Amino acid sequence: MPKERSNMLKSKKMILNVIACVSVSTVVVFFFNNCTRNEPTPEESLMPLEQEVDNAHQVAKVQNLQGETLDIRQTLESYLSLLQLTRDDLGGDLTAVIAELSRRRTLLPQEPDSKTLDMVGILSQTSLAGEVCRVFVTKKGPTSPLFSGVDLTKNPKTSPTSNWINTFHRLALQAWGRSMSNDELTSVVNFVNESVQASAKSPNVNKTDSISGLNFNVESTNLGIMLCTAVLVAPEATSL
Amino acid sequence: MFYKRRLCIDVLLFVLLVTYDTAVLAQALPTKSINDFAPQAKTLFERITGVKVPLIDSRVQAMAERLLKNDLEGAVSIPIKDPLFTNVKARNLALRLTNKSNSVNVDFNDTAALILGIIRDNTDFREIFTAPYYYDVASAASYGNPNSFYFTNSLIEADTNFLDLNAGLVKIANQRIPLSVGVGQITKINAEFNAKKTDAQERNKKMHAVLLTAQQPDPAGVLTTQGFAKTQYSGGTNRRPVEFVVKNFLCSSMPEIGDASASDAYVGKDVDRFFGGSYSNYTNNCKSCHTVMDGFRGAFAKVNYNNFYGAALSGRQSMAHGSFSKNTNPSHQKWLNDVINYGTLKTELEAKGQMSTLYKNLSTALVRDYTLATKSFVPSAPVTFAEAQDLEIFRNQVSMLAPEQLNTQYMAFIKANPTVNPQELDARIALGHINDMTNNPIKPGSASDLFLKFVTAKMPAAWSFYKKEAYVYAIKNFKAVKGTAVYLSVETNKTLVGTPFSSVLPTLAAVGSPLRSSILKDSSAAGKVVDANVNNNWLAANSFIIYFRSTADLILSKNVSEIVESNKINFDYIYANKNNANIKNEYGPNCVGLASVKTASSFFQCELEYKKEKSILASYILSKMSANKAPAEVIQGVTYFFNTNPTPIFPNAYIGFRRGAWYAYLQSIDNYYEHASGGFDVNTEVANKMTGGADPNGYTITDDSFVNLASDSYGWRGPYASGGSGLNQFGHMIADSKAFSSCMTQKVYTSLCIQPQAPAAGASTAEKISFAKQSAELKTSLKKWTFQFESSGYKIKDLYKQMSMDPNCNLMRSYEISQIIDGSTSNLVNKNAKGAK
């Protein structure tokens, strides 16, 4: 076999491989990017950090809140909307949410920027977000794609840590409209690792509660609520 | 071979080239999908509704689909029509307009509801100053209860219960103004509600009958809402609403709108022309603002926000209007005279004593005492009243009952108790326990029906005689129900008229009366004016005091006789030393100086009023009660009685007592009412607070006319541009002005758009130029939007819609879209949020 022909065939093969790979990748990327959503992902395969193209604009928006003060009703409506909850979804929990709403009504900062944020305001927002997240996790958690790969009926360690982190990632994408930054990811990884380890030592590690006919592991439910709350309480979850 | 190879390579290269070029072209001109427009749709939705949404939200996806089809208006319509727009964005705008701080952290009230309703319904926004209607929240539990609406701001429930305002706001035709409140009716309805657990809506309907309202004489949108009145018309001189309107609705301030060159002919008398002793102080510091402000404030001359009289009702305040005050002045004066000043009844009491209307009314009040809730009394174990006076009292009581009422109740009772002893039946009637008898109507034609018709219609004389005998039977067989005010009163009476209390102590000690504990906890409770809405204990306590007083003449006269007969006081010595300082101090300077000091009753009356419970008479009675082992609550109640109110037997008895007794009586017959305060000149209808001050150069307000002395730069237009009369015309003047539409446009802009950011220090020249350009464009846009707002009929929703689509609102970014703007096609290529950088 002449050398040229051999080279040509090699080139051809390589080109075909490239075309095939590109085609397959394209198909996979565009049509099957969610195909593993319902399966626990290996711990080492975290979701890629897709920095939003317009991330700079998002940052600018947080600092640019003309005409918008932070009203408790507005905050609650945003929390519900971001979690795709309706007033009807709250059902019997509406009373508890309203009670929290009343308690925190006058305690929110006037504007959600760094100049007016204070500890009372942050804690109040956190408390309200926590109440909404409690309802969300216990009512929608088991079936929500946001918690895919996470088993809320078993202790947190049962689910891969990466799945907990991906849950946060998905929540952030939904609420903030962008992926996490590297710094944020580092914080979340540390937080999840510490929480999972701490829950393993908790006396409630295998304790379950029955809520609306479903069994929830106490520690996993709490971790889910914490992740949800952490996302909602960020300024980006309420700033427009 | 070579060529073949070359050809093959060329073909491959060609294929690759074509593939590459196609890929590059595809990348350069990608086919847009819904997902490409989703971020833009999300931004628009969030800024328009004020609520964050995820990209996956169905509404965002629907908007993106329309954006893909270049249907920007269709896309923007989605959030505009969404309930969140009303519940958050529009609500926030409405709330900010209700307070001077422009904060959203304030209570939702009828002012905000009116503004929000007008936005939701997309009606002419100028009507916020001219509307004769108002909005209420139908989904609130207190909906339809005027008592809540006018006095306690029931609309706050919209927020506290997280109600959907978009669906819940209802428009109600005519604004009204409260005139008077019948507290007795409220008590009755509340009692009925609590006892039967009646449906709340049912109770609210009944409440309508309790609060008497009249149509607002000068409706002017928010200016005649309770929320606005509460903050702007309460106290002061009605200059506060002028400043508020100028600030919130014209986006100006008093110093800005003031005009030092304008005439100060309308500046009020309360503005000192020689402030600090210098006229120039006035011209330099006061005049400028007051010329315009006082010219405007005439519009508010006939409005006030003040209290309904009555100590039990402090805090029950509402808007009042001069014309209403004038029209109801006769009833107001009568109410003042009868209830507050007690004029005619006092005179009659002095003349007729126990035969006076008041005295009879007290007895009736007792008979109908609400504390007799059980309405059951057993005519057994007779308690004999030795004094004939007692019988007379009860006869008076019964005489106050209408015969027809007696007949009705009589018939009903016979039906329920066919074997009843007639004497017992009449005993019940005589003692006022008619409410105990069933109200079921007698079946027409029944034996009971025929019997009663016969008795009442054919034998009036017999009926009268029968009743009289019944009274005697009733008195002889009287035994009050334990725990009631009557029971305690009777036992007290017996103690004081000489019956040893120890004989009744065992039964009295067993009484589990709420009255007992309430008096023990707070002795003054017994005499406090009744809060008839909630606390029956007050009624019980008050009734006890009333009963005690109604028989106090007897009690006191008997004890006075005992004191005199036992020589416990030497009147001759007192009269002889009436100028002695010690004697004066001991018995009261007026008492010892009375010519009638030797008349025991006059002296005891005077001394009782002077020294209260430390007086001779009070000390004697209280010590006697203690000796007879009267229960603590009884002694405390009587002590309170001595300390607060002298007895009604004396002509100059303390007015407070009569008022309290009168209140109780009116309440007991559901005729007690509160009347809105006067505070207006009867002839001019002008609020008294508008005419204060004494500066001789000041303007005297005699009507609600106003003049507009502000600069033409505010763009005054319409029939009342230069002035008018009353709130509605003032509202028209404001709403018709160019400044109003411009101000509202600015407020919508700041609540919706992303403003250009001023360049930071050290910014490049290009950045500064860019900012200057954007600012200039914005100024032009604001004028354009104001024009659009006016030409489209002042529709706030439409303004939001138009503005959100405009490039200068900076909500359009990072995508390409063509659409019609202002009649020309604009290509918004990579607008990319100019101001957000």
Can you characterise this structure?
The complex is a heterodimer of chains A (240) and B (837). With 240 residues, chain A is mostly helical. Chain A has 9 helices and 2 strands. A two-stranded antiparallel sheet of chain A has the order 1-2. In chain A, a hairpin with a 2-residue loop joins strand 1 (208-211) and strand 2. In chain A, helix 5 (94-104) packs antiparallel against helix 6, helix 6 (119-139) packs across helix 9 and helix 7 (161-176) packs across helix 8 (182-201). The model of chain A is unreliable at 1-5 and 7-67 (pLDDT under 50). Chain B has 837 residues and is mainly alpha-helical. Chain B has 40 helices and 11 strands. A 3-stranded antiparallel β-sheet of chain B has the order 4-3-7. Chain B has a two-stranded antiparallel ribbon with strand order 1-2. Chain B has a two-stranded antiparallel ribbon with strand order 5-6. In chain B, a hairpin with a 2-residue loop joins strand 10 and strand 11 (824-827). The C terminus of chain B is likely disordered.
